[in-house]
Amino acid sequence: MNYLTTRTYKPVNLVNEMDRMFNQLFDSAPVSASRSFPVDILENTDSYRIEAEIPGFTAEDVDVKVDDNLLIIEAIKPNLDTKDEAVKEEWRVRERSQGNRKRSFVLPDDVEKSKVHAEISDGILIVELKKKPETKPVSIKVKTK
Question: Which CATH architecture has domain 31-81+94-133?
């Protein structure tokens, strides 16, 4: 049973359970706050959309992949220590962190894994996850006899 596309009236306790199960589908793998990035997850009838805030990264710095039922987003921050050795410099303030940023998400069963699309613009990575056509709700027109 696909819990994300079921849209029927249920008793209150079942609705709470459904909400809990939905939230578990997008629970991320444990990562430290300093090595992560914030995301928003949206759903419509055709797809899910993950918007990740990763300022300073380019498309070449970001790797998005689907491995089994996991969506993995990894961003590699260029090393800030690459400087000309002939120039004497030392850090006075250093707040920008270096290293990899990684998040992973368990995909719902209704995601069509071959139709994942990702693009980055102005520090926002948008990953579009299309739903399988057979899992989308179908409207049946009621006719008068």
Answer: Sandwich (2.60)
